[in-house]
Amino acid sequence: MTSRERVLAALRRKIPDRVPWMEGIVGNAIASAVCGEPIRVDWSVAPDGYPKASGAQLAEEQKKVNRALGKDNINFCFFAPIFARRMEKAPNSPVIVGDGMIRTRDDYRKHFKLPPPDDPAFIANAKAFVAHKGDSCAVAAVRLGIGATLLSMGVEGFSYAMADDPDLIRLVHDGYANWTTRLLPIIAEIGFDVVWAFDDVAFNDGPLFQPSFYEKEILAVEKEAVAACPLPLITHSDGNMTPMLEPWLQLGQSAIHPIQPDVMDIEAVKSAHGHRVAIIGNIFMDDLVHKRPPDIEAQVRRRIEVIGQGGGYVISSSNSLTDDMRPENVMAMRDAILRYGSYSREN
Questions:
Q1: Global pTM exceeds 0.85
Q2: What is residue 309's three-state secondary structure?
Q3: Which residues make Cβ contacts (< 8 Å) with residue 84, sequence separation at least 6?
């Protein structure tokens, strides 16, 4: 199977030739270390939110990493602009939070301006990326709406608005979601294979809001966006999503990622929901930084043998491959996937 065929089979909850491997981002330093040559993927974006690097460069640099690791996806960013003064990791959590600029209706009128999703230069760059995808699975990274809303309003501003002005949340969220709804058919027409939506809505101790709020205010509009997507959809949120799993899965996505291992039980998620959605995850990032290759091999083997049983599993780190990880641990992850991930091997 090609990488594209392998990922698409897993997302349909079928059994491919081996367990696929996908990552959101691979840092340039760790990529260079495992490839043995400089890797220069420019993930920066212009003020309009569009990638600065050429699509061809983004594809070719990521394909070098795939060849070294056996990884299966390459990613192109379709994020709408975020209106925040700064973004950073929340304390004791991998979730990114923003110092949001939209706190009032006046802020919304002043700042909330999105570029056209069919901008010709942007589309041409995305087409160049797809033209260079080769056998890799070409992934379009998007936000459905709630993640961008939280970043642009800030957690504090969003929390006050839930009580004082929920219509402001609807204005911001629906603006983002409607923009994404217009974008998704364009992504499919360009020739991408998969859409991956990055919308963090949980900290380590649980969701940022009650599941009832999500169901009442967010779910219906995002379901419309998902309905406009003719491609398999992966949804991502870090943090403890356990209380949100039932409403989250009402989106109708093909897969969920990453099932953060220090706060969620991937085996329980597979048992309860593996019949309706593919599972992507969740080799612990902290272990890839601090532990040793035998620990990583054991963790990969356990994930494949339990979560990979019957198909519908894509292995990944619990977020991304970062530059502070030990190269030997990332290589151990690669070797273990090759050693244990084949569905044709004798057990």
A1: yes
A2: coil
A3: 98, 99, 100, 101, 151, 152, 154
Alpha helices in the chain (DSSP H): 3-11, 28-35, 55-69, 105-111, 120-131, 146-153, 155-164, 166-190, 211-213, 219-227, 245-249, 266-273, 285-290, 293-306, 327-340
The set of residues, in sequence order, having a beta carbon less than 8 Å from that of 10 and lying 6+ positions away, is: 16, 19, 20, 255, 278, 311, 312, 313, 314
- Residue 272 CB-half CA count within 13 A: 10
SS3 (DSSP) at 157: helix
Main-chain dihedrals φ then ψ at residue 191, nearest 5 degrees: 120, 20
In order along its 347 residues, the chain shows pLDDT tens digits of: 999 999 999 999 999 999 999 999 999 999 999 999 999 998 887 766 677 789 999 999 999 999 999 999 999 999 999 999 876 766 655 566 668 999 999 999 999 999 999 999 999 999 999 999 999 999 999 999 999 999 999 999 999 999 999 999 999 999 999 999 999 999 999 999 999 999 999 999 999 999 999 999 999 999 999 999 999 999 999 999 999 999 999 999 999 999 999 999 999 999 999 999 999 999 999 999 999 999 999 999 999 999 999 999 999 999 999 999 999 999 999 999 999 999 986 44
Q: Which helix (H) or strand (E) holds 96?
A: strand 96-100
Peptide bond into 178 cis (omega under 30): no
Beta-bridge partner residues of 26: 321
- Domains of the chain, earliest start first: 3-340 (3.20.20.210)
Q: How many angstroms separate the CA atoms of 42 and 24, rounded?
A: 14
Q: Are strands 96-100 and 84-89 parallel, antiparallel or unpaired?
A: antiparallel
Question: Residue 278 pairs with which residues in a beta bridge?
Answer: 255
